[in-house]
Design goal:
Blueprint (H helix, E strand, L loop, with lengths): L23 H11 L10 H8 L3 H13 L3 E6 L8 E6 L1 H12 L1 H16 L5 H18 L1 H9 L5 H12 L3 E3 L5 E3 L5 H6 L1 H18 L5 E10 L2 E8 L3
């Protein structure tokens, strides 16, 4: 009889399918397809671009990635006219499963997982050291994602504030640059854990931003994060390292 708590190794290929790591732009495309009336049929790129805003080429690029991932399928739309049929897009069964999981499970499980981690770290003597280490690892993971590598190969490094805003937007913080140059974080995907243990959670976020700038070659900017600095926002403050 196996020991209590013992788990046998899972056979290769068994178990549930992991959730894909989806940038915010791709999640929006999936959500737009999910909310489309079934009677309307597959959505064209023009229709989706009208709903999502932005240039149709951006929508086309995101759809291509989703098709490659098996979350969306491309189908021909017969119009009865001569010439090549138009292409429409609709969710696959796996795509709908992912949408349901992202919309329902991820916001809850993420915050609760971070809260559990913060609760544990807060009882250790080196909580801040561990939080900074996690932030640096997080930045390394973000830098290794395909989208990040593609962005880096296509254009030169953006200004520090633009890099910070880009990362925070993807992470779900709804950043907005103030006239003062500070970046206001108007939403937080892990608000419960941040309120309970800002010394851990907010330190982790600040170090992630600092490490992101460091990795891009920006070595003269210091990132500061002021939790709950004002009504409805935390603030990220970028200062010159020499000041």
């Amino acid at each position: 009889m196996p020991a209590r708590g013992h788990l046998d190794a899972a056979p290769e290929g068994s178990g549930p399918v992991p959730l894909p790591d989806l940038p915010a732009a791709r999640e929006k495309v999936l959500s737009a397809l999910a909310t489309r009336d079934a009677s309307s049929g597959p959505a064209t790129i023009a229709e989706l671009a009208e709903v999502l805003g932005g240039h149709p080429n951006s929508t086309r690029a995101q759809l291509g990635r989703l098709v490659d991932a098996g979350l969306v399928e491309r189908v021909d739309i017969e119009s009865g006219a001569r010439g090549r049929p138009a292409h429409g897009h609709r969710l696959t069964d796996r795509g709908r499963l992912v949408v349901d999981a992202v919309n329902v499970a991820r916001p809850v499980s993420t915050d609760e997982l971070v809260l559990a981690m913060a609760e544990h770290l807060s009882t250790t003597p080196d909580a801040e050291v561990h939080a900074r280490a996690i932030g640096r690892h997080w930045a390394a993971q973000l830098a290794s994602e395909p989208d990040a590598r593609d962005r880096g190969s296509r254009r030169p490094a953006a200004r520090p504030v633009d890099q910070v805003v880009s990362v925070l937007t993807t992470a779900g913080f709804s950043p907005q640059v103030d006239p003062t140059g500070d970046v206001a974080l108007r939403t937080c995907p892990v608000l419960r854990s941040a309120r309970r243990h800002p010394e851990v959670v907010c330190t982790m976020h600040a170090e992630m931003l600092q490490a992101t700038l460091d990795r891009s070659g920006v070595d003269d900017v210091v990132v500061g994060l002021v939790p709950f600095a004002r009504e409805g926002a935390c603030l990220v403050r970028l200062t010159n390292a020499g000041k």
